[in-house]
């Protein structure tokens, strides 16, 4: 009995030691401090200001919100800036780490390890899979037919496609991944990339992809396309299909037994290294990650808040389609960051400047070999890096 009691006491001691090691130090709020906080969405800012005043009635003047659309920062002139994960990676030397206790976390794969303690993402933007239930049913198809591209081809379901990079990315992104990280240049592997774009070309023809770029903002109005990728920032709330609850979001279908993922960019807050008010900043950041802070985010007009499905029951989300949109975004992934030639440019940003979409379109419509396409893309990448 004594031995058992000793083991229990030892366990409790070790457990308490682990808890103490991970406990976040609470910083005192500065008496005469005042911080400027950038926010992109006015509705969100108003709700955060209301929450701050309720939480800290004696500190109402300690926070000033600056509301403006997101723009890349030429200089940091606010204590807390509104930024995204791609820009934050370029600003790390100008940002500081203020440790916070997060009551609610987002999906792990939407958190960059490089930014884990200096960037607090709260929402995301990107392309999401959208389908029109009415168009689907009018064509005699079922929602289950959307589970894979193979079943969509078998059921003759037209998928809206565009040759913009964001639309192509989910189908060829595995070809971007560098397999051997010991290579100094870190370009895509020739054989893997070639196989991937060969598969994409086959799917393109088997699924009868069409590049209807003029329908991109509202393809779901056209009964040709029951489904496709859609920009998360384009509002559909005032359209008749939405009002009739015919539009729905879901994760992308699978292809070759692999789940496809569109890419997204996360947006949120980061702390200016020059700020002199860590206590006020910590209080603000912990507030936005609290239950009340997340609810303010969900209640605002922010397009896609980042909320884990397991936490849905803790919040009131006013629209079922909005829940679907959040879940679809949770199934997205961050843009790949593969440094090339020791530059600060990631592979995706390079491909945006290389006209990969034009090269792939020529490949799809010709008898060129995939290896030839790889060499052409490789050459364009070399020129871009030489000129930049």
Gyration radius over CA: 24 Å
Structural class: alpha/beta
Question: What is the CATH level 1 assignment of the largest domain?
Answer: Alpha Beta
Question: What is the strand content?
Answer: 5-15%
Any idea what the CATH architecture of the largest domain is?
3-Layer(aba) Sandwich
Element order: H for helix, E for strand: HEHEEHEHHEHHEHEEEEHHHEHHH
Helix content estimate: 25-40%
The number of strands is: 11
Total number of distinct structural domains: 2
The shape, in one word, is globular
CATH superfamily descriptor of the largest domain: Periplasmic binding protein-like II
Question: What's the story with the biggest beta sheet?
Answer: 7 strands, mixed
Provide a brief overview of the structure.
With 388 residues, the protein is α/β, with parallel strands linked by helices. The chain has helices at residues 2-22, 42-55, 85-90, 133-138, 149-154, 165-172, 190-206, 240-243, 278-288, 291-299, 320-330, 347-352, 356-364, 370-387; strands at 35-39, 63-67, 80-84, 119-132, 159-160, 227-231, 247-250, 254-255, 258-259, 263-271, 333-334. The longest helix is centred in the N-terminal third of the chain and has 21 residues, at 2-22.
